[in-house]
């Protein structure tokens, strides 16, 4: 099983060793592209601060991220699983997994990134600020840039069930196609309240983090989207089939959570 995750805006304050070694990261086919984006981001952030803030979409309170990006070539690194600290990763809680479950996480989790394309949780990277929606001088719109770079790399590692939990911006960087799409499942999280269902961002991220954690802890090895649905039901999640996949379109599963008072 390959689990595709979005990154988080929240990241660890600093690394504890470095600098980043691009040729030591997973998915070696992305090395050249990573180097180009990294150089473009550092160059942008070493230039005019107002321009960098506009390109990166930073509010005045986040101007400090520009200086951090400017120093990425020599910045300290840490495992990607420690760098990302948002709601999804808080609920996934990688640090509290036992050795066996963490090993499964290292093999199955792939975190998408505007800067790195995609990394595994053991890849050592520095904290950074660069979302997939950014249009960098040189590489251009990162969603389109990474889509081209990943076209030949991702299918090589997507050799079983693909659980795609990415947000729309990161999903744009690689879309499962053909036979891969037929064994890909996406998840929509719905909050049920007073008989009505709505999509709520916080519930979405937290629930996806808990889903992945439960699968890792249980040692579940679903081979197909149907197997995945069965596994989640056995783990106590309320799951419904929203759309069965085809040769061109992934399966869609709805996970329903009830508001807790």
> What general outline do the C-alpha atoms trace?
globular
Helical fraction: 25-40%
Number of domains: 1
Q: Determine the oligomeric state from the structure.
A: single chain
Mean pLDDT: 94
The SSE string, one letter per element, is: EHHHEHHHEEEEEHHEHHEEHHEE
Instruction: State the total count of DSSP E strands.
Output: 12
Largest sheet: 8 strands, mixed
* Low confidence ranges: none
Describe the structure.
There is one protein chain. With 261 residues, this protein is of the alpha/beta class. The chain has 12 helices and 12 strands. It has one domain. Helix 1 crosses helix 3. The two termini are 35 Å apart. The model has no long low-confidence stretch (mean pLDDT 94).
């Amino acid at each position: 099983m390959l689990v595709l995750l979005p990154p988080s805006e929240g990241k660890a304050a600093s690394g504890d060793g470095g600098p980043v070694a691009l040729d030591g990261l997973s998915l070696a086919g992305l090395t050249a592209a990573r180097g180009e984006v990294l150089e473009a981001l550092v160059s942008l952030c070493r230039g005019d601060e107002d321009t960098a803030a506009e390109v990166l979409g930073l509010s005045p309170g986040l101007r400090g991220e520009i200086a951090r990006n400017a120093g990425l070539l020599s910045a300290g690194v840490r495992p990607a699983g420690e760098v990302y600290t948002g709601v999804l990763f808080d609920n996934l809680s990688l640090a509290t997994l036992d050795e066996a479950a963490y090993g499964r996480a290292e093999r199955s989790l792939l975190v998408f990134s505007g800067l790195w394309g995609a990394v595994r949780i053991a890849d050592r990277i520095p904290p950074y600020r660069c979302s997939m929606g950014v249009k960098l001088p040189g590489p251009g719109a990162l969603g389109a840039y990474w889509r081209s770079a990943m076209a030949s790399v991702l299918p090589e590692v997507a050799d079983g069930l693909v659980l795609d939990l990415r947000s729309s911006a990161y999903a744009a960087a690689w879309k499962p196609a053909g036979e891969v799409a037929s064994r890909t499942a996406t998840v929509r999280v719905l909050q049920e309240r007073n008989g009505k269902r709505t999509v709520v961002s916080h519930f979405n991220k937290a629930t996806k983090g808990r889903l992945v954690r439960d699968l890792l802890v249980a040692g579940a090895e679903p081979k197909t989207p149907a197997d995945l649905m069965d596994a989640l039901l056995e783990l106590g999640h309320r799951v419904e089939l929203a759309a069965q996949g085809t040769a061109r379109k992934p399966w869609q599963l709805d996970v329903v959570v009830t508001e807790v008072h």
